[in-house]
Every structure is written in C-alpha cells, then in structure tokens.
Amino acid sequence: MFPFSPLFSPEGNLPDLTGKVVFVTGANHGIGYKTVKHLARRGAKVYLGSRSEAKGLAAVASLEQELAKGAMKSLMPGKVIYHHCELSSPTKAREAAQKLEEIESRLDILSAFLIVFLDQHTD
C-alpha cells in the first residue's frame, strides 16, 4: 500500500544539511551517537546533548576523528559541539533549552533519545 525502500543508507538518503542547526539528546552513545555522526557527516552543525560532560566531550572527540577520516568528497563535514543536557526534570530540561537558545537563533532539527527508568510499577 505504501511503497518504501527496504534499505536505508544515511549516505545516500539524507539530504545536504549544510547550515542546519541540530540538537540530539542522549547522544554520547548508541543510536544518538550514530545520529549525530550521520547528521554531521551531511554538513549539519550538531549539538551533542549529554548529561555527563566527560562522556559528552569524549563522544565529541571520537566523532571529530571519525568525521575527519570519513569525510565525504562532495560535502564538508559539519561541526559537533557538546551541550550539557540534563532531562531528569522539566526545570533542568528548560535550562538546557534556554542555554541553547542563548547560543543559536534557530533550531532546524531536534532528535530526542531518552530512556526513562521508573521507580514504581504502573498498571
């Protein structure tokens, strides 16, 4: 009913993102990390959101190395920037958003990867 391609390739299917501003939460590992890598590879300026500064800065350093090695010939890689992002409460999430708003005049893409662990079971 809805045709789709069974194979998705970030290199072939993502558009040129040069000049776009992106914020990815939960980005110091896993799917968030890979998302940052592919968006930056397509030219975006990507803010890597992580609550741990040490892990966030380590992820930025690793991504910078990966981007330098795997730069696409047709595009200059974008930039990856650590941004402290604590989402454990609405107040802390608002603070992270306000700090980003002080730096950037716009946000083109938000990609949120968040795992919530509940202390109590619900029915």
Automatic annotation (TrEMBL):
Q: Which InterPro entries match?
A: NAD(P)-bd_dom_sf, SDR_fam
Q: Which key words are in the record?
A: Oxidoreductase
**Pfam assignment, any one:** adh_short
An annotated Gene Ontology molecular function = oxidoreductase activity
Q: Which domain of life is it from?
A: Eukaryota
What is the name attached to this protein's record?
A: Ketoreductase (KR) domain-containing protein
Taxonomic source organism:
Hypholoma sublateritium (strain FD-334 SS-4)
